[in-house]
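Design a sequence for this backbone.
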């Protein structure tokens, strides 16, 4: 069934039609700076198509919840657990209910996680429920950022993966993505590239104008026109709109957002005793409780892993299968320590282990212990970090038994856990009078490729009065540790990291 909805008017006054059936197969990208009328366009699209197709709106600002009053959209608040959101999304897909996922009140990372869980649950619906759904994502650059920002890498990958599934693989499952963004440059290219229909509004930055012109197949010299577009005016192109770029003035809407653009209004008349009015609290203020919409921050992965490591079984009886005894054989403490050391050596022998997070290494460590049938209480995460820091220092057995090394261990407690491996490596070199580690070697011990960051670490240690950095007559670096009464031999700061090079060559 072909349904053409009225989006507004063309230059000559003819109606601008959008083919919903074609849109379901080809997706839509809307771009425009703040105030260009993107939300107005999305609202027009949703109102005109509400009777023809199921709709799901990912709404970071809560602007589209007013659709529920006139069109019956179910409002789903994002302040729910992931299990609740996944269950709601699954039932919405099954029963073909239009809804608005309102993420207002959540911080950006929580919005990304909630949207990802909701979209993934819709994407994973069983085949019999693959009904057509128009999935509208406002401010899509928040959920599919081109580069990492202040959010965790885990949340970014989770959200970007859900958006990629929606735009790249959602068509076969009946999911038609309509994404709106303020800036194309901030939107992941693999997400934007899957749209075949475009509505480009007012924009001022050269990079965004050039990219909009490229998507519309226009000459770069014509990109300047996007600066002159009025609010609510867009240039449309695509199989659901037009085979060539056409200017479209978006029509009126029947519902309004809860928030709107600020309007000028006259200032109030001057009030006498304004200081008393402002600085004297009203008695009612002391009886009112401030309502804050907030959620606790998600628990760090490291804390969850540490809790799992301390978990105890529900029963003291060993788990077993019929005819088999799966209980790990008891081993003495000496053999257990040897096995733990072997597992640590295996993990840290990987040249890329220095660039993995402690949480990932710890998870790998726990899995290998279970695979090796190493019984006994699990090593806590903080103890694992300490062992890794000592192992990365390169200390040998003889040095580890010395009094100077015991002093170095106590000094390392003055810095954070992520810096202890670097400090102990410097201490080991100073105790044995080895050449001073290069910037590349220090960077690898810290888990980075940046030589500049390595030099900043040395500066930080010097500010904490843990080390003294100076150079010999040839310009080679020397690091002294006053509390150990020891210093390294001269070493070239720009020397290559031989350990990393030999490890890569061995591979």
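Sequence:
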């Amino acid at each position: 069934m072909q349904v053409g909805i009225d989006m507004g008017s063309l230059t000559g006054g003819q109606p601008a039609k959008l083919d919903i059936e074609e849109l379901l197969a080809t997706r839509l990208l809307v771009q425009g700076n703040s105030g260009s009328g993107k939300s107005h366009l999305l609202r027009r699209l949703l109102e005109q198509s509400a009777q023809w197709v199921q709709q799901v709106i990912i709404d970071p600002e809560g602007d589209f919840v007013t659709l529920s009053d006139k069109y019956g959209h179910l409002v789903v608040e994002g302040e729910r657990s992931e299990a609740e959101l996944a269950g709601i999304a699954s039932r919405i897909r099954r029963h073909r209910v239009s809804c608005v996922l309102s993420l207002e009140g959540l911080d950006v990372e929580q919005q990304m996680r909630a949207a990802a869980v909701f979209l993934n649950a819709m994407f994973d619906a069983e085949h019999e429920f693959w009904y057509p759904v128009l999935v509208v994502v406002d401010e899509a650059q928040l959920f599919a950022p081109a580069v990492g920002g202040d959010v965790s890498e885990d949340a970014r990958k989770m959200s970007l993966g859900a958006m990629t599934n929606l735009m790249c693989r959602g068509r076969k499952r009946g999911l038609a993505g309509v994404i709106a963004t303020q800036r194309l440059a901030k939107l992941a290219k693999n997400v934007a590239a899957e749209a075949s229909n475009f509505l480009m509004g007012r924009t001022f930055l050269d990079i965004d104008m050039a990219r909009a012109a490229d998507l519309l197949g226009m000459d770069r010299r014509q990109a300047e026109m996007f600066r002159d577009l009025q609010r609510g005016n867009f240039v449309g192109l695509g199989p659901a709109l037009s085979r060539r770029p056409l200017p479209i003035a978006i029509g009126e809407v029947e519902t309004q957002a809860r928030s709107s653009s600020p309007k000028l209004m006259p200032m109030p008349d001057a009030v006498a005793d304004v200081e008393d009015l402002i600085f004297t609290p009203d008695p009612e203020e002391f009886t009112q409780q401030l309502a804050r919409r907030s959620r606790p921050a998600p628990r760090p992965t490291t804390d969850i892993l540490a809790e799992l490591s301390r978990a105890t079984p529900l029963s003291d009886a060993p788990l077993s299968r019929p005819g088999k005894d799966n209980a790990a054989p008891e081993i003495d403490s000496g053999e257990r320590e040897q096995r733990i050391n072997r597992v640590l050596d295996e993990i840290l022998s990987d040249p890329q282990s220095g660039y993995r997070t402690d949480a990932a290494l710890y998870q790998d460590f726990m899995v290998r212990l279970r695979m090796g049938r190493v019984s006994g209480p699990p090593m806590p995460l903080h103890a694992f970090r300490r062992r890794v820091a000592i192992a990365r220092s390169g200390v040998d057995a003889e040095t580890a038994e010395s009094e100077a090394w015991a002093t170095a261990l106590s000094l390392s407690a003055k810095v954070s856990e992520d810096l202890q491996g670097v400090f102990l490596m410097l201490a080991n070199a100073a105790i044995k009078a080895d050449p001073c580690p290069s910037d590349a070697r220090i960077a690898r011990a810290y888990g980075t490729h940046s030589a500049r960051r390595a030099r900043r670490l040395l500066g930080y240690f010097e500010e904490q009065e843990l080390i003294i950095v100076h150079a010999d007559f040839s310009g080679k670096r020397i690091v002294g540790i006053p509390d150990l009464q020891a210093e390294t031999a001269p070493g070239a700061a720009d020397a290559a990291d031989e350990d990393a090079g030999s490890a890569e060559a061995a591979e």
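The chain has three domains: 4-250, 300-308+329-393, 394-507.
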